[in-house]
Amino acid sequence: MSVPMLLTPMEAQSPDEHMQNCAAFADGAALVYGTGNELESAAAACKPTLREFNVRLELPLDPEERLGLTGDAKALGEWQLSRSVPLESLDELNWRTTVPLQSCRQLEYRYFVYVEDRSGYKQIRRWETHFKPRSLGPCSELQCSQLDVFGITNDNSDLKPQVHRGWLNHEVILQLKFNGEKMFQVHDIETFDPQHVQLKIVPVEQTAGLQVEYTKQEYGKSQLDQQPTFGVPYTKGDIIIFHITLPLEKMMQQHFRLECYSMSNELLGSASLLSADLTGSEGLLHLPIKSAKDAEETLARLRLPYVVVQPYRYSPLDFKTTYAHYWPRSWPSLDVGHRGNGKSYIADAPAERENTIASFLSAHEHHADMIELDVHLTADGVPVIYHDFGLRTAPPGKQISRPDQLEYVLIKDINYSLLKRLRIFSVIAGKVVEYPSHNAEPRPEHRIFPTLVEVLVQLPKSLGIDVEIKWPQRRQGGGSEAEQTIDKNFFADKVLHQVIQNGCGRPIIFSSFDADMCTMLRFKQNIFPVMFLTQGETKKWQPFLDLRTRNFMAAVNNAQAFELAGTAPHAEDFLGDNAPEMLQKAKDLGQIAVIWGDDCNSKERVEYFTRIGATATCYDRSDLFMPPAKQEAFFKSPALMAEFAAQCRI
């Protein structure tokens, strides 16, 4: 015998339906309680009731902001933003609403702060991000009222609000980035000194849902904030990013003015910026700064990088749960297999080729908790796994004896069907070595260029995955790691779509060396954590142009600014005596730090990075360097796996 289905209040549209619903509850209760007085009490307890939700804020909302409510009941919108319930303001700190719900119903719900644009679309400014939503049991006639404090639940042992920014829905983010060393070309230093200037972005026309914020990145003070009246003080070497949120439909119609003030708050000049001038997801604006005294006089010229973050283009996301900051401090330091069981295009290579399913499984066999893999997009939009931006190849049948006989092609320029047919070469110690192409390898798990979908489907869910998004970086000395012509939003959406559709129910984290890609991944979705991957202060490679990539603390500051889960810094940053203190600074901001690099590749170094406080260590050769005492991968626990089940929304 099964328990009858209960309707929610919104589903029970008539008094008869409400009575049927209560009768169904009584029938179900009979299976548990039996008959008699207990059954009569159960039926009486289940009836349509106006449940009152009262919320107190710690700080008043901005004038255009409102408080919303959503939850797992139909009357609460079933976690959907578009169907959420608005609350009414009683005063600047107290809000209330009443919702028709069954008195017997166990509820889960969350609160959020939003603004509404002129088209009626809601933008999520902030929302409660506890791993488990609020819960509410059945109520009686005498007690159907709920009093909550925004951001704080009974699970908050330290009584600190757990609230984060929302994800994009019908709005976009435009970031204007002062993140380089040579931003201004000045005509007269006496008239305009870029070392002593205050910067402010002003919308020429205000509209509902338009907000301008900024981050001036400094340890512990990098959160996005409102602009000062006379702008943000800037000098060479500062990292200042203006973060502009605006309705999607206004994206190509907005006009901004960059105002430049002296340190004594005098308007020196300004530059005009039309959103229609923005081409693609990212680019470089060349802006003349015109004198405030003489509009014909150009004080300076500004090279201003920008990035546009569009909302995730596939199915809408919801409030049900989030893993974006889910990394409990009770977890041990984890072991991450670099490219699976390690780099393979080297002299002393493991048996399995890197970034293949066989390599990932080998790492897991040797108790790796997670593996790191590298994702590219092919010319026809297929996310594939490979490390380098391109590959060395040669025509079929051609004899190759020297490196200069090889061609180098970029993955972005090749369709997946062709990629699987290409011959693959590497140059090791000056010697040309050929490897089996994808199609020539008879063992499926050993094939090069597996798709991201194949990896997600075939790997056990108990093996966590660090999905690194490959995006070429501009170097400080000029040039770029590689050419990239694929649109950045398109790239991010393609990868996110595959992971959301096929990767749920397991530990997954995104990472990228590209700070803007990390920002995109953070604001396009609310399910998975994102960490900023950096090479830091190193002698091994040329520094990147973006100042946010240059050292560990710059990465930590950027992670704080855009609410990333943390960073993946290079091991070379942590070989000095101050390494534990550096990692503690990240922990003090609630961030994780996954250390990677060749300097991790020994048992002694794995133990060292664990001891100084690394959240995880990413290294080659799990078969050689895994801690000897480790008997099993951490996520093989059924209880842990159950915690990730709520990621699956389809």
From TrEMBL:
<dbReference type="InterPro" id="IPR017946">
    <property type="entry name" value="PLC-like_Pdiesterase_TIM-brl"/>
</dbReference>
<dbReference type="InterPro" id="IPR051578">
    <property type="entry name" value="GDPD"/>
</dbReference>
<dbReference type="InterPro" id="IPR030395">
    <property type="entry name" value="GP_PDE_dom"/>
</dbReference>
<dbReference type="GO" id="GO:2001070">
    <property type="term" value="F:starch binding"/>
</dbReference>
<dbReference type="InterPro" id="IPR002044">
    <property type="entry name" value="CBM20"/>
</dbReference>
<feature type="domain" description="CBM20">
    <location>
        <begin position="47"/>
        <end position="152"/>
    </location>
</feature>
<keyword id="KW-0378">Hydrolase</keyword>
<dbReference type="InterPro" id="IPR013784">
    <property type="entry name" value="Carb-bd-like_fold"/>
</dbReference>
<protein>
    <submittedName>
        <fullName>Glycerophosphocholine phosphodiesterase GPCPD1 isoform X2</fullName>
    </submittedName>
</protein>
<dbReference type="Pfam" id="PF03009">
    <property type="entry name" value="GDPD"/>
</dbReference>
<dbReference type="GO" id="GO:0046475">
    <property type="term" value="P:glycerophospholipid catabolic process"/>
</dbReference>
<feature type="domain" description="GP-PDE">
    <location>
        <begin position="333"/>
        <end position="629"/>
    </location>
</feature>
<dbReference type="GO" id="GO:0047389">
    <property type="term" value="F:glycerophosphocholine phosphodiesterase activity"/>
</dbReference>
<dbReference type="Pfam" id="PF00686">
    <property type="entry name" value="CBM_20"/>
</dbReference>
<dbReference type="InterPro" id="IPR013783">
    <property type="entry name" value="Ig-like_fold"/>
</dbReference>
